[in-house]
Amino acid sequence: MQLRYGFRPYPNGPQRTALAKVFGCARVVFNDALRAREDARAAGLPFVTSAELSKRLRQAKKEPERAWLSEVSSVILQQSLRDLDTAYRNFFDSLKGKRPKMGPPRFKSKRDRRQAVRFTANAGWKITLGGKLRLPKIGDVRVRWSRSLPSVPSTATVIKDAAGRYFASFVVETGPQEVLPTTTPEVGIDLGLGHFAVLSDGTKIDSPRFLRRAEKQLKKAQRSFSRKTKGSADRDKAKVRLARAHARVADARREFHHQLSTKLICENQAIAVEDLAVKGLARTKLAKSIHDAGWSQFTAMLEYKATRYGRTLVRIGRFEPTSQVCSACGIKDGPKPLHIRTWTCGACGNVLDRDINAAVNVAKAAGLAVSACGAPVRRAPVPAQRDEAGTHPEPRPTTTRQTGIALI
Predict the structure, then answer these.
(1) Which of 78, 223, 306, 391 could form a disulfide with 311 if both were Cys (CB 3.0 to 4.6 A apart)?
(2) How far apart, in whole angstroms, are the C-alpha atoms of residue 335 and residue 401?
(3) Percent with pLDDT over 70 in the chain
(4) Among 32, 83, 186, 190, which one carries the catalytic annotation?
């Protein structure tokens, strides 16, 4: 499988200037090609092919107003055209229903929060014996290698984020030697907001709430940025400080997700999670807390790590009534308000924790070998029914569907 490894390069002053020139040239080529296709579409002309765009690029280098395009590697400019083709292909596939809905390609701006260029094998980049990243027409850039690459990378992508940090991303092929030894435990996970994750064995993992804890510092940085005069150097400095504050929050959340997902993958042979409708839930009044939790990023990490290490990840449907069904007897007791955290099953009399019960039901819906025995369930006294002693009552009919979230 292909994986992406990221490292922090530290270019010096001239190298940062050269990278800024590379970012700008790649952006101009992308925007020129996009404008050519948009103009052809508006005029009712045929779709401009990649070969025609490449021909126009070679002609543009000979013109005085575009002669500075020759100062960067031509492979980077050709890669911008291929990136545009990929953006159009993804857009057309979304219209055909082959992938999630997405919009058409848009024009890039030098004020975008993320600038990136990709160096393919034809660009002549390499990692030197001294451990530096040699980029064409840029030089040998110092890189902090936090780990070794498992194989020779096929591409190298240089990224600059809004905080002014540079990243070098490499695509590598990994072999089957990374499969972990087989283990026995299987677990279901109920994701939420009160607790980030509740496991079917009764373990509750608190939500770090990185964004909520940093709100005071973020508000201060945002206030300082908004008070600066537009176009001034002080405003640019305040913008970088604000971006760095948000980057610290995102980095802390990503590190938490990595540590937790790795721990779960190493300790369990199979994992079951709900396929939550995060986009829909992010449009509610709980949007800030849902974005702060980062469920999509966490489940994506679980998915690729399970594939990499030979584990099994099962996603159950978002409309499974995990909070309505008793994990002990299987009786559906209907929807319950979110403030009810424990409830007593009217059939078997077990007192159930709402979150642990939902995690057990997630595991059962995925077909994992778990039972309600792993959850702290205590037997409550249940009086006998007057008409039919010793029988279970019929479940109450309900018309309310689950929204896909089991914990608020």
Answers:
(1) 306
(2) 8
(3) 89
(4) 190
Residue 333 is among the residues annotated as catalytic for this protein: no
Distance CA 72, CA 336 (A): 62
Give the angle 359-360-366 at the CA atoms, nearest 5°: 95
- Cα–Cα–Cα angle for 256, 258, 260, rounded to 5 degrees: 70
Do the beta carbons of residue 81 and residue 29 sit within 8 Å?
Answer: yes
**pLDDT tens digits, residue range 38-52?**
999 999 999 999 999
- Residue 131's alpha-carbon distances to 9, 141, 144, 160, in angstroms, are 11, 9, 9, 21
For the question of residue 355 being annotated catalytic, the response is yes
Extract the tokens encoding 230: 């537009």
**Burial degree of 355 (CB within 10 A; 0-12, 13-18, 19+):** buried
5: β partners: 170
Task: Tell me the one-letter amino acid at 1.
Answer: M
Task: Round to whole Å and give the CA distance between 64 and 334.
Answer: 73
Catalytic residue among 32, 292, 320, 355: 355
pLDDT band at 367 (very low <50, low <70, confident <90, very high): confident
> Among candidates 115, 148, 108, which has minimal Cα distance to 20?
115
pTM over 0.85? The answer is no
What's the maximum distance between 2 C-alpha atoms anywhere in the chain?
Answer: 95
> How are beta strands 204-206 and 270-274 bridged, if at all?
unpaired
Please state, in angstroms and rounded to a whole number, the distance separating the CA atoms of residues 321 and 318: 9
Catalytic residue among 83, 186, 274, 333: 274
